[in-house]
Amino acid sequence: MIGTIAACLTTGAFVPQVIKTIKTKDTSGISLGMYSLQLIGVILWLCYGLSIHDGALIMANGITSILSSIILSYKLKEVLGKRNDLETAQK
Question: Pick from 77, 60, 54, 50: which is nearest to 13 by CA?
Fold first, then answer.
């Protein structure tokens, strides 16, 4: 029961950031490195949950990996857009 509550809270913590990022498309205050490491860690936790057949781990880390991927994709679009703008300005 405690694990399920913890899973819901830690997974739910990502929802406000995802909503804000989708609405504003602003990721300037988000660390690319942090979200990259976060996503790798969550995927590894998901794999671990699958290997031990733990429903709370599978559910929480499956959902969190999707939410983290959304934020990371917006951040990558921002970073790549800035790189393309810089390359265009240099030409």
Answer: 60
